[in-house]
Design brief:
CATH superfamily of one domain: Zn peptidases
Structural class: alpha/beta
CATH class of one domain: Alpha Beta
CATH topology of one domain: Aminopeptidase
Largest sheet: 8 strands, mixed
Shape: globular
Distance between the termini: 46 Å
Helix content: 25-40%
Strand content: 5-15%
CATH architecture of one domain: 3-Layer(aba) Sandwich
Length: 388
């Protein structure tokens, strides 16, 4: 059961394995190193909603939250009308990155450690992240906490992945301890940045380095690294995880009513949605109507209001999430939690912060899905009319 205890990759999957009222479908695909991208559904209605988590492996709270939602539906099936909705869950979109990140965590926080030990560690990490940002220190305090942790923390059963992470570490001289910030997949690719419209793709092709936060002492984002680059080769191609995800969206939209989707990230306590500005150059679509913008805005507003999250307009269309937002009107991106410091900060439960996050987002999720349905009905009623 999901609580504020940090779960590793195997434990996350163990939680998924015991959901008897949630149907496991065929994986939507497999990663380069052969890990299945698991796919689950709840309900059998004609109105479909897709929910994903774990695009970025350090945003571990997103995996935990989506599995928590699945557990709640598993024990209280009447939370949503199963004859009205079909909910699609992709709780671990990035299995490879999740293995790397949680292996690094287990090097410091073993299974069976006390809750106090875990909470103290999370707070210490949070403090280091805060000080790193405030001081602009070249030597990162957060990396120092993991300076003796490297790819050898990955278990033998993941040998191929482990050896490739070692290869990337040696080839690109990745900073000691940076494995704990493995946001990317096993290829060192940032799955959300893995987009042909990424503004930095041309620089990558020309071999121009791009550094994290413009700090030349930081990670070079032009090559495979923990935070992730755009693509492996200069010639763009989607990673296997994104190919599988895009195919799922297209299949669901073709065979049913895809009324919306929620892409879970962290952190910030934000809801990202489409910007309705004609002067923006959106490479995905140039024909988005006012009705679609209203659809998207109203869905985002429903979630934002219930969760007390701030709404942020999407102004840069260079990500996979922006492609999904532009293509499917009811799609929003939710940045879970209001405390910083992935992968640990979100698990701090002082004054019930973690518990409150679950409660507020649960309420927001139900309201958001109901709003998706209402907005879809409005949108469908305009078919055959001039969409304005």
């Amino acid at each position: 059961m999901v609580t504020n205890r940090i779960l590793d990759y195997d434990e996350l999957n163990e939680c998924l394995d015991i959901l008897d009222n949630i149907k496991e479908e065929e994986p939507i695909g497999t990663t380069r190193f052969g890990y299945p991208i698991r796919h689950f559904t709840f309900g059998k209605g004609e109105n479909h909603v897709i929910m994903t988590a774990g695009t970025h492996a350090t945003e571990l709270i997103s995996n935990h939250y989506l599995i928590h939602v699945m557990e709640e539906l598993n024990k209280s099936a009447d939370l949503l009308d199963q004859n009205k909705y079909t909910i699609h869950f992709i709780p671990i979109l990035n299995p490879e990155g999740t293995i790397v990140t949680t292996s690094a965590i287990r090097a410091k926080l073993k299974r069976g450690c006390s809750l106090k030990e875990e909470q103290d560690f999370c707070k210490r990490w949070y403090t280091c992240c805060k000080l790193d940002d405030e001081t602009g220190s070249v030597i990162k305090r957060k990396y120092e906490m993991f300076q003796k942790v490297d790819a050898n923390c990955i278990e033998e059963k993941h040998k191929a992945l482990r050896e490739h992470i070692k290869h990337l570490t040696e080839t690109y001289r990745l900073p000691q301890g940076s494995i704990i910030q493995w946001t990317a997949n096993g290829n060192g690719i940032n799955l959300n940045d893995n987009s042909p419209s990424n503004v930095y793709l041309d620089k990558k092709r020309r071999g121009i380095p791009r550094y994290l936060n413009d700090d030349p002492n930081g990670l070079n984002l032009s090559v495979p690294n923990p935070m992730g680059t755009i693509c492996v080769q200069d010639e763009f191609c989607f990673e296997k995880e994104n190919e599988a995800l895009l195919e799922l969206y297209q299949s669901v939209a073709t065979n049913g009513n895809l009324i919306g989707s929620i892409i879970y990230h962290s952190c910030g306590g934000l809801v990202r949605y489409l910007e309705d500005l004609k002067e923006l150059n959106n490479p995905w679509r140039t024909d988005i109507t006012k009705a679609e913008y209203r659809y998207n805005t109203n869905v985002a507003s429903a979630y934002s209001t219930a969760a007390a999250y701030r709404m942020i307009k999407t102004k840069a269309y260079n990500t996979v999430s922006s492609k999904l937002e532009s293509t499917y009107p009811g799609t929003i991106l939710v940045e879970l939690g209001k405390i910083r410091g992935n992968p640990f900060g979100q698990f701090i439960n002082d004054n019930g912060m973690f518990d409150e996050m679950l409660t507020m987002n649960d309420k927001a999720l139900i309201r958001c899905i109901e709003t998706m349905y209402q907005e879809f009905q409005k949108f469908e009623s305009l078919k055959g009319k001039t969409l304005k």
